[in-house]
Every structure is written in C-alpha cells, then in structure tokens.
Amino acid sequence: MDSNKEFDFEAFKKQAIEGMYAGKPLNGEKGIFAPLLKHFLEAALEGELQSHLQEEKASGVANRKNGKTAKKVKSLSGEFNLETGRDRNSSFEPVILPKRQVIITEELEEKVIGLYGLGVSTRDITRHIKELYQMDISAATLSAITDKVIPVMNEWRTRPLESIYAFVYLDCMHYKVREGGSVVTRAVYNILAVNLQGQKDLIGMYVSESEGAKFWLSVLTDIKSRGVQDMLIACVDGLKGFPEAIASIFPYTQVQTCVVHQIRNSLRYISEKDKKAFMADLKLVYQASTKEEGYENLIGLEEKWGKKYPVPISSWYNNWANLSTFFQYDAHIRKVIYTTNIVEGFHRQVRKVTKTKGAFTSDNALLKLVYLVVSRISEKWTMPLHSWNLTLSQLYIMFEERLKPHLQNA
C-alpha cells in the first residue's frame, strides 16, 4: 500500500472481518492487523521526514526527498515491508523506528531478554518466539536485542555508591570465553556488600584474564572513586597479597580471611586416615571462645601434627592475624564474617543459570548474562540480615568514630 494514499479504513475493516471468518490470526506472520500498523508507521515516518526537511530549510541547509527505502519489519501484529522516505543529504534519522531497528514490540524484546537472563539458549529462544508469535528471529537479531542491556548494565556498573559499608565480601567466578580461534579463561570479580541498613548489594562486577591481587587493587580503587570512603570488615579468600591490596586503599578496614577456605586448603595435605582426627583438633582452633584460646589450641595442633603436616600448620600461623579477626565479635557477627559463604551462595545462584553455557562469545556476552541474573537475584535483597539491630549496635561500639560521620549524613 502506498503511504502517500489515504488509508482505506473501510476496505481494511472488510478484509479484516473476512480474514477473521476465514480463521486468520489477529497477530503473527500473517496477522490481520499488519496492514493497519504498516500504514500508521509509514504515515508517522513521512511526517518525521517532512518536519526534518522544514528544519533543514529554516537553518539554510539545502535538502530534499530522495525516494524511499524498504525493510522487513517484525511485530506482534505481523511481518511486513515498511517503506521509509529518504533525504538527499542522508541526515534524516527517524525517531519512531530507527533505521536499523526491525523489531517494534517492547513486549517481544522483554520476552527475549527475560529468556536470555534465565540462561535459555539462542536456539531455544528462537523456537519459543516462533511458537508464541509465529515469528522467525535470527541469532543476529537476538544478539542485537540483548545488546540493549549493555548501556543499562554499564550505567549500573559505574553508579555512585554509599560512603560506607559494614561488611564487604570479595570473591571471583571463572568462565570460558572465545577469543579469536581459541577459548580463554575469564575471571569475574564480584564485590558483595552489606550497607548500614543491613541490606545486601552487589557494588562491583569486573572481568579480567585471571584472579590476582594486582587486579583486585584496581577494583578497590574503582569503588573508592565511585564514593566508597570506608569498609568496616572485608571478607576474602586466601589469595596471596589480598589483605595488603585492601590496606593500601582502605587502611582502616579489618580483613577476615575465610576460615572455610583455609580449612579446605589444609585438608588437601592431610591423608584420608588422619582427616577425622586432624579436623577434631582443628575445630578447637577456629571454634574457640577467644582469640587467645584459639592460638593456644593452634600451638597444641602444631605439637601433635606439626612434624607430620608442617605445611598446613605453617599456613595457619602465617595467616593467623587475618584468620582470627572474627574473634573480636559476638556469635551472631562471627557467623556472618568468618567465611565468604554469603558471596559464594550468591555465586551458586548465578552458576545455576550460567552452567548451561560452554564458552561465551565475548566478554560482553558473559557480563550481559551475569548482569541479568544479578538483577533478578537482587530483587529479593529487600530485608536486612538477621538480627541486624544487634549487629549495628556492636559495630557502633567497635567503630564509633568511623561510623558517626556516615550515620549523621544518612
């Protein structure tokens, strides 16, 4: 239908009614409403072009119409060829339907992004859309739709942060990404924080070739530049140089090395026949009532097992300063900070979705999916941690001078 001609609504209505009686669908590939949507869009685009040419003329720029261009458009009302007017200077940029856009339904795009965020494969998304809307969508189109997440994701990743956080958990996930003709490993660095209201928030998500204290240093520098002035307690795994990296950016932050990670690493050196007895003695170290009692029990552990297993015993001594931070607090705080289980639990939720992926096509493809999973998980982070009032009271006793400025500004 020529968009310059008046739309014959009566003829359309007659054809639509006949189509309905003939069993044609309202929407889909041969949808009854497709001609009406085509007319509305072409009329709107024609109006945009006329307005653009008038503005060009008013500003002294010589320009005029230069024929039409056509593209196949997919919509819930059907698929059709849409004609758009062109201008001689090629300066016309339509607003209602940009030049390269071929999908014109937010509902469909939300459906695609939602399925992608659940870890559904491109092939299965294509089949699902075909079943729902009788519409074929290529892998390139699906990628273009999900790429719309990237600006929102980047804005989220660089958003301003709160000035202080009570607890911060730093940990890493590893994935495979295609690069050129090979598959490489990527580390996704995540910083999960608990604010002064006791609510969780993923304040940082970064990707690098591998995990290392040097990159963690750049990550911490970034969150400081985004407004974080202080972190009371940082919970980390046993990565070498990690506490020093934190101290260089946040010198007053207490560091708690994950006790569970330390236990796992220790057991790697213990023979199967000794593990049960060794663990019984090791529990006396990290389940002690006080730091002093724990250290005395560590000495006892060394006296009993040191000659046979010097490596794990030495590791406990070398890391004792950061392994024993949690002893300063009551049981309900100890439970929260002695391990990085909070961020590891979050990672398990992410992996439930990402485990179906072999290797991602790019770093952006990896980050897109992780971001969409994070967005869904974080919707449930509305309540404070258990017994948060008691936790905050104890933190206030321990860190009164550091907390005061932030509580006054809150």
TrEMBL record:
Domain of life: Bacteria
UniProt keyword DNA-binding, yes or no: yes
Keywords per UniProt: DNA recombination, DNA-binding, Transposable element, Transposition
InterPro entries: Transposase_mutator
Pfam families: Transposase_mut (PF00872)
A biological process term (GO) from this entry: DNA transposition
Listed GO MF terms: DNA binding; transposase activity
Coiled-coil intervals, chain numbering: none
Free-text function comment from the UniProt entry: Required for the transposition of the insertion element.
Family: Belongs to the transposase mutator family.
Protein name: Mutator family transposase
Phylogenetic classification of the source organism: Bacteria, Pseudomonadati, Bacteroidota, Cytophagia, Cytophagales
